[in-house]
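Curious: why these numbers?
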Amino acid sequence: MKGVVERLLEYIKYDTRSDEDSNKCPSTEGQLLFGRMLVDELKEIGLSGVEQDENGYVMGYIPSNKAEEVDSVGFIAHIDTSPEISGENINPKIIKNYEGGIVELNKDEGIFLDPEIFPELNEYIGKTIITTDGKTLLGADDKAGVAEIITACEYIINHQEIKHGKICIAFTPDEEIGRGPDKFNISKFGAKIAYTVDGGAIGELECENFNAARLKIKINGTNIHPGYAKGKMKNAILVGNEFISMLPQDEVPALTEGYGGFYHVTDFIGSVESAVITYIVRDFDKDNFQNRKEKINNIAKQLNKKHGEGTIDLEIKDQYYNMKDIMKDKMYVVELAKKAMEESNVKPKIVPIRGGTDGATLSHMGLPTPNIFTGGHNFHGRYEYIPIYAMEKAVEVIIKIIELLAKT
């Protein structure tokens, strides 16, 4: 049997960054290649019905070994990594028996894991952690989830004394760009309840998340020789800065936490002639979410009135919605995971996701899917790391969910 760490280190060799500008599914070839490898591995360890469909979704299942009928359970992780930073040529570092203090990731570039900035590191003194080399992300989001699910499946298959119902497995593309469930075939998947294994620190259990939208603001300027520009030039960069300044300056990710929503500018590319600003908008409350989008619409109207119609072209696309509206009537699924954690000596931390998972949309599609931890920290960046013992506990919790469900 392969260990969960061995799997993670193998999986992160695949560059599976998704690409929002692509109209294909999956959006990048690397996801298809990684998915094909997973198909071979799932078949090798003994799952049934394993295949990768034309859109890159990988599915398989372990048949029930109980005479009595047991609810089928699914486990889902995504195969893409964030496009915000390179996922190519990942060179992980293994810090054995972390002694505390600053961890040097890349001395030449001044990249360090400092517990003064990342105090959660202090919780892992004496543990072994896997980090980046400061040049790329690690890819634990969500290849740790993939590794944990497959490791749990292999354990179940090799321990027939563990009684269980049907166990359904799916690995989805393009979660990081909000498209993970777009072509997910729930009836083919075959689970009655499911869990995404896509959370953060050990113990996290999440059944509510942001409502989310992505905005693209195109600004059309007019470029004139600066010596003769009076009354004629319209500088798209300055109009873009004006747009940004009209949003609440304290409602940004760096200044919000808990249930606080935000406006987050993720990209600003431009010249005098034209500029494009990309935003993501997040809020837990449905009404506040709508108000945020309306505020942006109003700003666009004001700037078009001031600078001329057609200056601002605004595109708003909803990405996913809060699963709380669905899960409030399906809390037994959350309680099952909570009990599994407690019996695995993991303290459950039921917290809202300041983000989203495939489970949010899947829940609205009729498959209740809360989210459980992978064990990682600082996703989407060069400071990402994951403790090995947290990954091992995630495997244990998955197995325990399967065992407990078979006893109900």
Notes: The chain has a mean pLDDT of 95. The chain has ten helices and 17 strands. The two ends are 29 Å apart (CA to CA). The first strand starts at residue 48 and ends at 52.
